[in-house]
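Ligand-bound model needed. alpha-D-glucopyranose.
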Amino acid sequence: MTTKWWQSGVIYQVYPRSFYDNDGDGVGDLNGIAAKLPYLEALGVDAIWISPIFPSPMADFGYDVSNYTGVDPIFGTLDDFRALLAGAHGRGIRVILDYVPNHSSSEHPWFIESRSSRVNDKRDWYIWRDPAPDGGPPNNWRSVFGGSAWTLDPATGQYYYHAFLNEQPDLNWRKPAVREAMFDALRFWLDLGVDGFRIDVIWHLMKDQELRNNPPNQEPRRAKSPYYELLPIYSCDQPEIHELIAAMRALADGYDGDRVLIGEIYLPIDKLITYYGPEGEGIHLPYNFQLIRLPWEARTIAAAVDAYEALLPDFAWPNWVLGNHDKPRIASRAGAAQARVAAMLLITLRGTPTIYYGDELGMRDVPIPPELEQDPFGKNVPGRGLGRDPVRTPMQWSNAAHAGFTTATPWLPVADDYRTFNVESEESDPASMLTLLRRLLALRREQPALHAGAYSSVAASGDVVAYVRKDESSLFLIVLNLGPAPAVFDLPSRELHGRIVLSTFLDRDGEAVNDALSLRGDEGVIVRLG
Ligand code: GLC
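Prediction:
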């Protein structure tokens, strides 16, 4: 089968504030990313997705955009971006930007106009409503980041809706002029040559026209955050979203070079797959966060992979994500040893993997003392462990001060263990996590069965997950031990003999496998069969 770059390729997420600080102000920047392109090329990724780089007051670290067609000075200039794009393309690395269409910054000129008066031309570019009869908010919708989703503007006597911070007012996508202006922003970057977009909270874009109250959530499990005490069935995932997405897709398809649209969507998989569109005219990759959300338990993971594979329509290309800038890192969720097994799973499942920066080193969540806390989510909803700073700490490049990330004081503290987990020391260690990732990516790139082949699960029990990837010419068996105890996996058929091509311990290359395969605790192996 012929695959597009975004199907066979591997995406790497760069959180620009934390990747590499080139200008010595303690915050990462575009020239910093450009300086590290050789690293990314050697790692073997095909594309980078860069979290928002646009002008922003940084209330939510760039997810509050005040100009959709510029670059924030903290990250550099538009020319720096052009240079980064050219440099990446020169190395065969695509560049995906983070498009934040649900809300702008409250300092965006559109919102400043909108709030200036009830009769301003841009009033209905945002969602304004009169107070409820008691003077309170128009409905019970909550902000994901805590509190009501409505803020009263005393000057004009109305509330505006914000699914996130009050500095992030939601745009009114039912208004054609908003759509045109926001589509122009997409065209601006596509014209410059970017290869696609990760679209922020895409399932939030359309809201119930009548703004009906959200019902209470009967499932207390989800109520870690107060937001989930209500089920957001009227504030998110409305049927009208699909027409809007199809229009975005048509826009992207109007460009050459297979530009890709990836959607951030936290929904159950039956809902998630509707974002591909009924016949594939939706987004290319609705992000599949199951490996982030599910407990790290073999039977749960195996069942989830099979359920997803079974639900996907033929035209829909799968994808997998282990971590991002909003969720605990895999090495903290599953432990250092399992992070390797997880990496093997991520890279060998069918579909496009996304690697979060630093996970290739085994970076962990870094506890942030309260006085250094930056994330507005953590500050607004204290005491529930919801702050995202621990997963956004500086990339660990070397043994040098601040892990070689910056010469200044970094905007977030560097992990205490950076002298063990960093690029420089792991590059020269044949058993390191980084070496494992490089080997996995090289193998995936070289073997069509692994980047384009079919998937089928193989029966396994206990802590073991097993599956096969195959194409016309080759067959690979992947066996992963998700537990700490040794396990023996009986090969299901006498024909399934082969040789190990990779173990997560990096020490079994070429070992013959016959009737049974012994795994150490926390070990995964790829076996070439036949
Ligand atoms: C997405 C982003 C997150 C941001 C939020 C609001 O979930 O990933 O970082 O805070 O949207 O834009």
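The chain has a mean pLDDT of 97.
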